[in-house]
Design brief:
By secondary structure, this protein is α/β, with parallel strands linked by helices. It is about 40% helix and about 10% strand.
């Protein structure tokens, strides 16, 4: 019973942190007058679980050789990413006030910049992140280092052909320390994803390619934690399909293409904060 209570306590703590990071993401996007709130909100539970419940890293020494790596393949969701990095101690919280400013002290540009503490590589040209993550995971094996590489992809992004090249390569080289996660929020930049190209059946696709596949509710923190903490497969890379809602937590943003890359007005920002209290 004690163990169960401790687990439930951790889940609740991470749920609160995810809500806090949603608010923080919206704050800096609102201040900057630009950014991508929809995808930041949909991925908040996943990224919160990774950085505060799963990954091995030391923010005071961000280049430690044995650290776990995170690649934000859906690189436009930096409102969330930078909020998480600041919360984790990679740089000062005050730096978030310079989000998307050209003279930002920590290079907090619209897409991730490798000069930002905690960022592994520049991303945002969609479709490239899984290839990069696979290369980093291969490097661990060549260097005899025991770290995992986590790559977060968008569902619209996986329509890119390069994703499938990387999918095949990871199986060929038995890159079992690679864990890819799809933020399957079903809404792309200007359309419903399935109306652009229907991606289903996603599980069957990745299983056919030879991956270890799991599908979860990406907003159920207990499910997210459980799958991220599974032991690695002995040979296969892992694909986690996380079903999410674009704009999660803010009713008027949920499932809406219009909130892909638009900063909230003063009025909308205050409404959103009330819903995220």
């Amino acid at each position: 019973m004690e163990s169960t209570r401790l687990v439930q306590s951790e889940v609740e703590e991470l749920e609160l942190k995810a809500k806090h990071l949603r608010r923080k993401s919206l704050k800096i996007i609102h201040q900057a007058g630009s950014g991508h709130p929809g995808g930041s909100l949909s991925a908040a539970d996943i990224v919160t679980a990774l950085f505060f419940g799963v990954m091995n890293y030391d923010s005071s020494s961000p280049k430690k050789a044995d650290r776990d790596r995170f690649v934000l393949s859906k690189g436009h969701c930096t409102g969330l990413y930078y909020s998480v990095l600041a919360e984790a101690g990679f740089f000062a919280e005050s730096g978030l006030n310079d989000y998307r400013k050209i003279d930002s002290e920590y290079f907090l540009s619209g897409h991730p910049h490798p000069k930002t503490p905690g960022v592994e590589i520049a991303t945002g040209s969609l479709g490239q992140g899984l290839s990069v993550a696979h290369g980093i995971a291969l490097a661990a094996k060549l260097d005899n280092l025991d770290y995992r590489v986590y790559a977060l992809l968008g569902d619209g992004e996986i329509q890119e052909g390069q994703v499938w090249e990387a999918t095949m390569s990871a199986v060929k080289f038995n890159t079992n320390n690679l864990v890819a996660i799809i933020d399957n929020n079903k809404v792309a930049q200007d359309n419903i994803t399935k109306d652009l190209k229907d991606l289903e059946p996603l599980e069957d696709k990745w299983r056919t390619f030879g991956w270890d596949v799991h599908r979860i509710d990406g907003h159920n923190m207990a499910e997210v934690l459980e799958v991220l903490r599974l032991p690695l497969h002995s040979q296969k890379p892992r694909m986690i399909i996380a079903d999410t809602i674009k704009g999660k937590g803010v009713s008027f943003m949920e499932g809406q293409t219009s909130w892909h890359g638009v900063a909230p007005s003063d009025e909308d920002y205050q409404k959103a904060l009330k819903e995220l209290e």
